[in-house]
Amino acid sequence: MSKENETTISTASRPETNGAGAPSGEETLTVTDNRTGRSYEVPIVDGTVRALDFRAIRVDEDDFGLMTYDPAFMNTAACRSSVTYLDGTNGVLEYRGYPIEQLAERSSYLEVAYLLVHGELPTASQLADWQHQITIHTFVHENIKEFLGGFRHDAHPMGMLLSATGALSTFYPEADDIDDPENRHIQTIRLISKMPTLAAFAYRHAQGQPYVYPDNDLAYSGNFLNMMYKMTELKYEPDPRLERALDVLFILHADHEQNCSTSAVRSVGSAKPDPYSAVAAGIAALYGPLHGGANEAVLRMLRRIKHRDNIPDFVNGVKEGKQRLMGFGHRVYKNYDPRARIIKKAAEDVFEVTGRNPLLDIALELESIALEDDYFIERKLYPNVDFYSGLIYEALGLPVAMFPVMFAIGRTSGWIAQWREMVEDPEQKISRPRQIYTGERARDYIPIDQR
Ligand code: ACO
């Protein structure tokens, strides 16, 4: 390639990177445009090239420039993030650098929420203050109760949670001042503290039972159990084992980097509405069966298998492509989902209290057969977080419609941590993908009587 045909794409407008610095001579990609014969050198930073750098690749002056096409963002990083590290090949999940296994074993959900939001584990006094702040904001305005009362008796609780979260923005109109850090902080507290209240109210509505107000003597998960299950007793006393198992589930679901719902929060949030509206978008994404609904499919599958004797037939059917083994496989994890291992243990703890769910034995056997079978080994299919979580929720007496709601409670801290990171990121702008237009052009309007 001749020298005059080489173009170096400038890095001048790039912000500083996390230690990677400016690309050295070798950290570049040379591409040749065979339409023109020109070559371009594109910087590689942190293992990525910038899509915008390709805009300089043009056939002529009038050319818009080369775009990248990536439906479903299969290979496009949309942000820099220091919240969650995920290595699907090796089954690693870390929040702010702390392994999920250690957090699930030793931390509490609220401590993890603090970690996600602030980036560091709290000191004892910071944690006490954070817990206090969250606890004293658990109540919702009485009008929210009336608002929820307007839903049909059989309304899906996820639809109710979605609407109620969006409605919160009208109760806190000042929340749209998202450039004020103090304002962001109070809305953060409100979102994390009120989500269980809204979720429990949605559940009680479906049951036709009166709403239970938060009990500020109880910890986060214990209070949630109180709002869900308290009947006539004067004081609800949550079983500490169930309370802990629930806390662990919330920890495991707290964040998972740029998944569909988090991307929705970031994308909507990039237009700078208040955080309630952005988080409502996340709930809407999680409502979808491809995201928040797989554990329901696992339960249905286990019920259909019904007995351990039917497992070999079922597995053969999976291998023949007649059905999928639900709760197995993951777009990112090509190894045992670390959350699945922890949830399996939590399930045993819960069943100690509630009695063993016979579906667990089917699940355990199904897992051990699949993990030994070449079909699953070759395709790197391992249990994911949803393989056991539905069994726990069912043991807690939750209807399947509540499963994604439980997910949303835990994920709220991650959504808000990611939203805050986005708001504070000087590189971010309003989200606005490009398209490849495939439709008609410049057609003359035809009056209706001539069509
Ligand atoms: N059972 C049987 N075979 C499977 C399964 C499964 N659960 N998952 C993938 N495969 C097979 C596919 O048939 C394909 O085989 P082939 O190469 O012979 O055609 C191969 O494994 C690759 O599968 P893809 O569909 O390309 O993998 P992808 O990454 O697109 O899908 C997904 C990931 C959607 C999670 C998939 O594994 C699946 O459907 N799992 C069951 C549903 C589930 O548990 N979802 C929860 C995910 S976790 C979450 O969302 C919180």
Task: Describe the structure in brief.
This protein is mainly alpha-helical and 451 residues long. It has helices at residues 100-106, 109-118, 124-135, 142-149, 157-171, 181-207, 220-229, 240-253, 260-269, 275-286, 294-305, 311-319, 338-354, 358-372, 374-378, 386-395, 403-424; strands at residues 6-8, 28-33, 38-43, 84-87, 92-95, 98-99.
Description:
- The structure is a single chain.
- With 451 residues, this protein is mainly alpha-helical.
- The chain folds into two domains: 69 residues, no CATH class; 345 residues, Orthogonal Bundle (Citrate Synthase, domain 1), CATH 1.10.580.
- Helix content is 48%, strand content 6%.
- α9 runs antiparallel to α10.
- The structure holds acetyl coenzyme *A.
- The site of acetyl coenzyme *A has 16 residues, from loops.
State the CATH class of the largest domain: Mainly Alpha
Largest sheet, described in full? 3 strands, mixed
Q: If you average the pLDDT, what whole number results?
A: 92
How are the strands of the largest sheet arranged? 1-3-2
Number of strands: 6
Q: SSE order in H/E notation?
A: EEEEEEHHHHHHHHHHHHHHHHH
* CATH homologous superfamily title of the largest domain: Citrate Synthase, domain 1
Low-confidence stretches: 10-23
- End-to-end distance: 55 Å
Which shape, going by the Cα principal axes? Answer: globular
CATH architecture field of the largest domain: Orthogonal Bundle
The CATH topology of the largest domain, please?
Citrate Synthase, domain 1
Helical residue percent band = 40-55%
